[in-house]
């Protein structure tokens, strides 16, 4: 009896899939494009990554891990410097992955580089005398601030202004000049010499560190 034997698709490793995906431009990243690069059917690729969402998640974690792989935290064990450097590295890693990224894909990831950084930060916080729960909360807060900053960076205008601020200012132009005085005063005094996302990021990190110092 002739015909194709049914059963397990051709064996493909995670590294092979990632290597193939790296050869495909982000805008062209599809199941078919990766399958063609591997020389297998799209059905075979489905067996290992499920669907395009699974492929994107795999590629995203790989990119994020590579971005964080070269990060070196301060060696002097000053928990303030270490926590700040971690937050900056986490934020920059998210930004480098791409402005169009759904950052929720990175929640709870087990990328080795991210785990190594987290372990180093927690170790420094514990050595500084913080209780385990406080150290955990501090790391989570720093991570949340970094994710928020990455979102804000993606939401900035070409001039560095957050789109929400720009939209609010535009909306006020259509309102009577004597309305919303507090909002107008805050917007008019906003400093323009730095980008909104960077300034907000530093402000939130300063608050976190000041709170932990207390």
Automatic annotation (TrEMBL):
| Taxonomic superkingdom | Bacteria
Pfam families linked? TetR_C_1 (PF02909)
* Keyword terms of this UniProt record: DNA-binding, Repressor, Transcription, Transcription regulation
Q: Give the GO terms filed under biological process for this record.
A: negative regulation of DNA-templated transcription; response to antibiotic
Q: Cite the GO molecular-function annotations of the record.
A: DNA-binding transcription factor activity; transcription cis-regulatory region binding
User: Which segments constitute the Tetracycline repressor TetR C-terminal domain?
Assistant: 75-213
- Which SUPFAM superfamilies did the record assign? Homeodomain-like, Tetracyclin repressor-like, C-terminal domain
Name of the protein described by the UniProt record: Regulatory protein, tetR family
- Organism of origin is Mycolicibacterium rutilum
């Amino acid at each position: 009896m002739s015909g194709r034997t049914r059963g397990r698709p051709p064996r493909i490793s995670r590294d092979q899939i990632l290597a193939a995906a790296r050869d495909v431009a982000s805008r062209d990243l599809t199941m078919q494009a990766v399958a063609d690069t591997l020389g297998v059917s799209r059905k075979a690729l489905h067996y290992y990554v499920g669907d395009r969402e699974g492929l994107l998640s795999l590629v995203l974690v790989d990119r994020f891990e590579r971005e964080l792989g070269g990060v070196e935290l301060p060696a002097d064990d000053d928990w303030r410097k270490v926590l700040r450097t971690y937050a900056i590295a986490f934020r920059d890693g998210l930004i480098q992955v791409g402005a169009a990224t759904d950052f929720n894909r990175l929640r709870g990831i087990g990328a080795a580089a991210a785990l190594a950084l987290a372990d180093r930060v927690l170790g420094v916080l514990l050595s500084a005398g913080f209780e385990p729960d406080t150290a955990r909360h501090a790391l989570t807060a720093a991570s949340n601030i970094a994710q928020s900053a990455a979102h804000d960076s993606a939401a900035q205008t070409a001039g560095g202004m957050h789109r929400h601020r720009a939209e609010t200012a535009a909306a006020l132009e259509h309102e009577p000049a004597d309305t919303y005085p507090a909002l107008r005063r805050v917007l008019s005094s906003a400093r323009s010499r730095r980008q909104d996302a960077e300034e907000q990021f530093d402000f939130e990190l300063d608050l976190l560190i000041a709170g932990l110092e207390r």
